[in-house]
Amino acid sequence: MNAAALYPWLKAVHVAAAIAFVGGVLAAAVTLRPLPGDDASALKETGTIRSLRGWHRNVTTPAMLIVWALGIMLAQQGGWFTSLWLQLKLALVVVLSAVHGVQSGALRRLAGGAAVHMQGLRFSGLVTIVVVAGVAILAIIKPF
Fold first, then answer.
1. CB 65 within 8 A of CB 101
2. SS3 of residue 11 by DSSP
3. What is d(CA 144, CA 142) in angstroms, rounded to the nearest whole number?
4. What pLDDT digit, counting tens, does each position of 11-58 carry?
5. What is the signed CA dihedral for 45, 27, 90, 13, rounded to 10 degrees?
6. Cα–Cα nearest to 113, from 30, 50, 21, 32
7. What is the distance between the alpha carbons of residues 74 and 77, in angstroms, rounded to a whole number?
8. What is the pTM of this model?
9. Closest CA to 92 of 13, 25, 12
10. Domain boundaries, the chain
11. pLDDT band at 129 (very low <50, low <70, confident <90, very high)
12. Nearest CA to 93 among 53, 131, 141?
């Protein structure tokens, strides 16, 4: 199978991985929202942190890596690296990856019993939604 025939399959897997990645980031954003007094003990007692950390490590992070790998492959096949829309999209994806990194760190610290200031995660859900909307607009419309 040649590269042109593989393109729709790579794009489909890229989109599916992006959905899993964004879903995991949004699940973490909802779960890690600031609690009264930054008290995360309720999350620890129910096993929510352990479950979410496992999901983050086993699903969200691999999905992010697949999104990045296939995205780079697709951009290379399309010859889009010099396009402004792709450069802006990549900047937004870096922001989303950073949100994921902050969430992963918070989950790791919470699972280890360390105190975490949840206020830093207050807007991670909103940031995720705005960034994903921007990525979708740039990828579909390619305005520049």
1. no
2. helix
3. 6
4. 999 999 999 999 999 999 998 886 555 555 666 666 888 899 999 999
5. 120
6. 50
7. 5
8. 0.89
9. 25
10. 3-141
11. very high
12. 131
